[in-house]
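Example (one chain per record):
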Amino acid sequence: MAPQNSLIPAEEQSNYETFRECLSEPVLRILATAPEKPPRRRRGGKKKKCPVKGDAVRIGEEMEQEEDINVAEDLGEFVDYLATELFASLPQPIRNLSYTAFQSTPSLRETYSPPLSPTTLDALIATIPHSASDSLSSYGLLPPHSDTLDLARLLSPVLESYITSATAPPPIWSATRTDFCEICEREWIPTTYHHLIPRSTHSKVLKRGWHNEERLNSVAWLCRACHSFVHRVEPNEELARNWYTVELLRGREDVQIWVKWVGRLRWKKR
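Predicted structure:
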């Protein structure tokens, strides 16, 4: 179960968690592809000798793992802080969006249906506190001396993704929902359904006999970060033809590296 954020009202917790996931996806994507830091030089210029070479390797690996865990914890805290700042600044109607409210309130659909109009986007960006903008810049997610246009470019897809998720009807595959992401196996994080055979390829799949029709609607339940990552590893046709099960995806080396990295991220109770 995801930790409850005491700064967010109980009735908004579910939407907050969805918003946090929508925000974390571009943050993780940008930071995960950032250039690696050069190896640190050891003091003294010489490496200390250990009685056993294997011990030196093991100690080095443990130090690297501990450093990776610390980085992941810091990043998790940053995303949680940033999501809280941004979500709490949004107007109350958008914080409480739901499928029922969206369908029964024409004004909500007119104002918040994606793609957001420039007027609506400007109004939402204007609510964001300067502290959040400064944090985005300090992590390299915004360029130095960024303006509202840079902020809008970064957050527009986040807001539209959140609105789409918060107002989506219950899927027909809801009975198959798992209580964990089927890629990274995190149990405390919201999941979305991923068509293992992308819908845009269904006609070609049947025409070329890649799969039977019964398999077309197979889905996996993935956290938003893993969902987006899967769609980046291969084009839709390749996913449909060669990577159409969770087992096949998890067997890929790039997916295993991603799982090892993203699996360290944890949101802390606030």
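Caption: Residues 37-60 have pLDDT under 50 and may be disordered.
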